[in-house]
Specification:
Length: 503
């Protein structure tokens, strides 16, 4: 027993140090030269400016809910009072600010996304190795890195949505006050995600769908009072049990509170500061204004050169150029750009909002394999059940028997689809960053495969797992210059533009 305890403590320390390392790398990359472009990059022209408008009490109209601008405004207020981060300033937000002032809080928030993704992975299957790989992959996603380095809002939407799902899963293994605290936090996460953008509701939508699936499986399995575990004193997960299947233990009040009442309250309350500054239109009129505004937006290259179709997102066919500028040693220094490298005559500064190609393409393949496994599992069960005798079926020996890993695959598929399929009917111009929520569940699918292979007795499969990790990390390093906007020669830039549609 002493050996096992020592081994357990050692593995816990290794896991903790690994997660700390992932966080520190994530933090460093997000804060490194955060103010290198002294301008408003991409949609900073909206969000950084709107955030400053709250501080200067300047009325304005916003086509999205206001929560992300409140957060950025808090960052601006704190940043403007700090004695560092003032290497350059501009007045593009309406006040004289450093880019560090309106970007640092996004960088800090985005640094926690790998940890939250890892926590969700661990909550689903209780495997530290799976949680670490999932966190590592999240830290190696270029789109999350880019979105975290500028005053944009998508990282808040994803982070809050994942937290909502994490706390709803944690609630089923708790009792009493702890359970209610988790349910309240879940509701706050879902409501706050929707208060960033309406598509934050897709995380809540996915939770409803997985809850329906859990109940469907429970009904298929049948109800026998003697087989139902007592909730009292038995809230912790037992071996072979998934928190997803335990969602059916939530009663009507608990579900209604966490998945309806609190999200609605949080979303509604989030509008109060905005309405105090902009009393007209009122709350209900603002919802109508937002809806009609987005309905009026068309799609196509005439509307925006980087509009992209939803079905191209899993393959990353059309990323977005957030910033692009060339600089020459013969020209006058550009106050927007950092100094050119010594000896360089002409360079390109490019910030490409694109995922890690190796991670995204392999994640899409992994998700397809996960779908195939789940479909095959259900087909085998249906075929076996149809061929079995009536007596055997009546004895309930052929009930649908999903394992913890099957619950995981169902959870990933349902949430990936819930975050993607609503975009099918959207007619306005949409962008690759709308896939960020989906990409989390796709990368979790890839991490699941890699974790399985690393624990396989077959050398070939372990080699595949290690190879994929190296491919993901290597691709992240290779494309890092266009995530961070590092100076590149024309040739260095071209070798990173693998598809004509990336330009």
């Amino acid at each position: 027993m002493k050996f096992n305890k020592k081994q357990f403590n050692q593995s816990t320390w290794v896991f903790s140090l690994g997660m700390l390392g992932v966080f520190l790398i994530s933090l460093t990359l997000r804060f490194w030269e955060l103010e290198r472009f002294n301008t408003l990059v991409f949609d900073e022209v909206y969000y950084a400016k709107f955030a400053n408008d709250y501080l200067t009490k300047t009325p304005f109209f916003n086509a999205h809910p206001p929560l992300s601008q409140y957060i950025i405004a808090i960052g601006i207020w704190i940043g403007s009072h700090l004695p560092f981060g003032k290497t350059a300033v501009n007045s593009m937000t309406g006040s004289l600010l450093s880019p560090w002032d309106y970007r640092w809080i996004n960088a800090l928030t985005g640094s926690f996304i790998p940890l939250v993704v890892g926590a969700l992975a661990y909550q689903l299957v209780r495997r530290p190795s799976y949680a670490f790989i999932a966190a590592l992959f999240a830290a190696c996603d270029g789109l999350f890195l880019v979105e975290s380095r500028y005053a944009l809002n998508n990282i808040y939407l994803v982070l809050l949505g994942i937290l909502g799902q994490l706390f709803i899963l944690k609630s089923v293994e708790s009792e009493g006050k702890k359970r209610w605290n988790c349910l309240i936090l879940a509701g706050v996460g879902f409501g706050a995600s929707a208060a960033i953008k309406w598509n934050g509701l897709w995380f809540l939508f996915g939770t409803y769908l997985i809850l329906i699936c859990a109940w469907a499986v429970r009904l298929i399995q049948g109800k026998k009072g003697e087989e139902e575990p007592s909730r009292e004193g038995n809230s912790a997960l037992i071996p072979g049990e998934s928190p997803v299947q335990k969602l059916t233990e939530l009663n009507f009040l608990e579900v209604g509170l966490s998945l309806a009442i609190i999200p609605i309250l949080v979303y509604s309350i989030s509008w109060i500061p905005h309405l105090l500054l902009n009393p007209t239109p009122n709350f209900w009129q603002m919802q109508t204004e937002i809806l009609t505004y987005h309905q009026r937006i068309k799609s196509g290259p005439d509307v925006h050169p980087y509009c992209s179709a939803w079905y191209g997102w899993p393959l990353m066919l059309r990323p977005i150029v957030y910033f692009y500028k060339t600089a020459s040693s013969n020209a006058q220094p550009d106050p927007v750009l950092p100094p050119l490298p010594e000896g360089a005559t002409q360079v390109i500064f490019d910030v490409h909002a694109m995922g890690n190609p190796a991670l995204w393409w392999l994640s899409t393949l992994a998700l397809m394999l996960v779908v195939a496994i789940l479909v095959h599992r259900i087909w085998v069960w249906v075929r076996t059940r149809s061929e079995a005798s009536v007596a055997l079926i009546e004895q309930q020996q052929l009930l649908f028997p999903p394992t913890v890993e099957m619950w995981l695959t169902l959870y990933l598929i349902v949430n990936w689809a819930a975050n993607l399929l609503p975009w099918v009917k959207v007619t306005r111009c949409i962008f690759l960053y709308h896939y960020m929520g989906c990409s989390v569940f796709a990368s979790l699918a890839l991490a699941w495969w890699v974790d399985r292979w690393l624990h396989s007795p077959l050398t070939r499969l372990r080699g595949m797992g290690v190879t994929i990790i190296f491919l993901v990390v290597g691709a992240f390093i290779f494309w890092m210059p266009i995530y961070l906007g590092l100076p590149l020669s024309q040739m260095e830039w071209k070798i990173r533009m693998w598809l004509p549609s990336w330009i």
